[in-house]
Specification:
Length: 88
């Protein structure tokens, strides 16, 4: 109740709410809708899929090029998690 004893009647300011809604809609369109329909994203090239054998060979080559000690390499092959010491 207000000081005169009458119930408070609040009226929404539709002008401000409309302006904020338009701003929110523009931000939504720029961040969600327009990037999906951009011409660059529609021209997606097919990526080449490599075979499992080639992936394993590539992983082995990467692993062999890591600066690891033989102890660290043996821990990589263990089935349970092991702590690998960090060389100084």
């Amino acid at each position: 109740m207000n000081p005169t004893g009458k119930p408070v009647q609040l009226k929404p300011n539709y002008k401000i709410l409309s302006i904020l809604a338009v701003i929110a809609l523009v931000i939504f369109l720029f961040t969600q809708v327009i990037p999906l329909t951009a011409s660059e994203t529609l021209e997606v090239d097919q990526t080449n899929v490599i075979s499992q054998e080639k992936a394993i060979a590539s992983a082995d080559a990467f692993k062999n090029n890591l600066p690891l000690t033989p102890e660290m390499i043996s821990q990589l092959h263990s089935p349970q998690p092991a702590t690998i010491p960090i060389p100084n």
